[in-house]
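Ligand: cobalamin. Inputs:
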Amino acid sequence: MLKKIESYLYEQHMDVVGVADAAGWQSPLEECRPTEILKDCRRIIVFGKEISRPIYETRKHALDLYANVAQNYYQSMDAAAVEVASMLTRAGHPSVPLGAYLPLLMREGKYWGIVSLKHAAVRAGLGTMGKNTLLINEEFGNRLRLGGVLTTAPLPAGNPLPKSLCIQDCQTCVEVCPVQALNGQGGISQYKCLRKSTAHPLLATSFLSQWFRSSKLLNKNFELVTGTLGARYSYSCCECLINCPHFQKGERRKEQEEGEN
Ligand code: B12
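Predicted complex:
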């Protein structure tokens, strides 16, 4: 079954595919734990697709062109997740596709994905978390976008990588962050980052949510605004991604191969 899923996802031009054990998921939010979401959930299938370097490095309109590709990826990755979930369900293993971006929850004034795809990718052995809280993959660096599926199928699960890929003494992401959102120990101030990195007439104001954390009504309203009017947005910052030494990953290998030929 896993072979069938892997070959389907690679046919859909995904670059990496992994399986994470869903048991004992340490999300601080119970409602964001796979076994709380899907009865008898056993695994999280997580897959990734690289956004290649030239897209971040155009001389003009780089952030808008990059955002357009990211939004396009989210749609194709969600479509692939839907197909994989129905393949598994038809084979007798109830499964549910996860969204690469939406649906988003707002709890205590903070945004949450229904399941954190980065943490699933780490658990599946697809990479480790950088100090910029992004997944670093051995081949594609920090340029992967992620999609996922919750499943009751007892697929063989991967294991986390034994060693962090984030360079120990490197603090580049922390230093280049224009709003000091990164604490250098893998923590991020979501409000500072959101306000700086997300270009949207409404979403950029959602940093206000820090002042109404306890208001369930306002949290719910912001969640609704994000899930509807916030479905499309652009980027206004990705400094922690493009300045990370792992941003260069993958391309240099191709250049070396071309050099050898
Ligand atoms: C909300 C969100 C944002 C928010 C908040 C970021 C954040 N770190 O939470 C904002 C808008 C600021 C943001 C910005 C960006 N994002 Co964003 N974002 C998301 C989204 C939709 C949900 C993430 C989430 O649930 N966060 C809340 C919790 C999980 O995060 P946290 O507070 O750091 O959690 C801490 C603890 O609670 C605990 N924890 C929480 N859950 C769990 C679970 C387990 C098992 C464990 C062990 C621990 C644990 O560990 C964390 C550290 O202590 C995901 C998609 C998804 N569903 O995963 C994309 C996602 C993480 N974003 C992504 C990207 C690329 C970006 C940007 C680079 C976009 C850009 N501007 O160029 C920036 C980078 C900013 C940064 N350095 O993180 C990619 C990351 C891919 C990768 N290679 O890692 C994702 C996966 C989207 C995708 N489908 O590919 N994002």
